[in-house]
Please model this.
Amino acid sequence: MSRTTLLVATHNAGKAREYAQLLADLPVAITWLDQVGIRESVDETGATFMENALLKARYYAGVSKLLTWADDSGLEVDALEGRPGVLSARYGGENRTDQERYMALLHELEGVPDEARTARFRCVIAIATPDGQAWTAEGVVEGLILRAPRGDNGFGYDPIFLTSQYQKSMAELPPEIKNQVSHRAMATREARLLLARLLV
Model:
């Protein structure tokens, strides 16, 4: 079976390699933005993860003329009316470290009781064709925001997010477990099914 080139809409080669491993059994050849000479970034102006994922997938599919895979993800905290949401990666300012971001979030939640610290990680993956057709898949992991960080694995808000399923922070889970139960893993499983149907 001939292989279809799939553009992963990222400038991060590591992220592209991660998706290449997850999609290894499908007849696709993975490439990414820098590899095909696309340097520009898309302004993520959507109000939701789905809007941003679709925006990126459609834009880069149009520019590259390739089938394109894009994602957007982040943390939604109920006590903060869904923030940081689509601003998760830029919460509190562009140049903050992961630790500065989650400590600022913990500060905002001071005085909020445990039962009201509900939150979720959400990931949306969009797959788009050069003519603008697009499909989406979503993964959601429910949990609570801890009062202090725990664990050394993971990145972003992982140390302060207690998973309902394991009663451990995302940063306490070994990578092989996290890669099965994370919001990104769940969205990828759904998106794989969409992609497999497109390649038939």
